[in-house]
Design goal:
single chain; alpha/beta; Rossmann fold; 2 domains; 5-stranded parallel beta sheet; 9 helices; globular
């Protein structure tokens, strides 16, 4: 059974886009999220629509009580360190994460990492999203949802999208 463990930011952005189903559709039958991450994404100030989407998604997955942050970079948040530590110990098929330092450390540990953008492109490749839907998701992430992406990378992604 394929396993994916999710960090907070991809869940938040996928909830904003109403695309949380892509995690199950593309990455694994077993989806895991640490309780620390659940607490981070289900904050009181989350928009009600987003919170509803997150709660529906979280009701269908495995929530893990694991808080060991280990000695991994103190530059990462506690939930990032705990997620990484859990992933190192349990070796999931995918680690769904956007944060650059966390991705770099995870890859260094031999983990397979995918982020929000990679998941969206995978969905287009597998014909779950159309090219137009993918472009709309990218525009919404950058324009409406404060997704952090450099101008150069965003332009490169749009060029790649045009070549699909």
């Amino acid at each position: 059974m394929r396993t994916v463990v999710c960090d907070a930011s991809p869940l938040i952005f996928l909830a904003k886009l109403d695309r949380l189903h892509l995690v199950h559709d593309l990455l694994g039958e077993r989806t895991c999220v640490l309780r620390l991450v659940v607490d981070e994404v289900c904050r009181v100030d989350a928009p009600p629509v987003e919170l509803g989407r997150l709660n529906r998604f979280l009701n269908g997955i495995e929530v893990i009580d694991f808080t060991e942050a280990g000695h991994i970079s103190q530059s990462l948040s506690r939930s990032d360190r705990a997620t990484l530590n859990w992933a190192i110990r349990n070796r999931p098929d995918h680690l769904l994460v956007d944060e650059r330092l966390l991705r770099r450390v995870a890859v260094g540990e031999g983990l397979t990492v995918i982020g929000t953008l990679g998941l969206l492109f995978m969905a287009e490749r597998d014909r779950i999203l159309t090219k137009t839907e993918l472009r709309t998701c990218l525009e919404d992430l950058a324009g409406k949802h404060d997704f952090r992406i450099s101008v150069d990378l965003y332009q490169r992604i749009l060029r790649e999208l045009e070549s699909l």
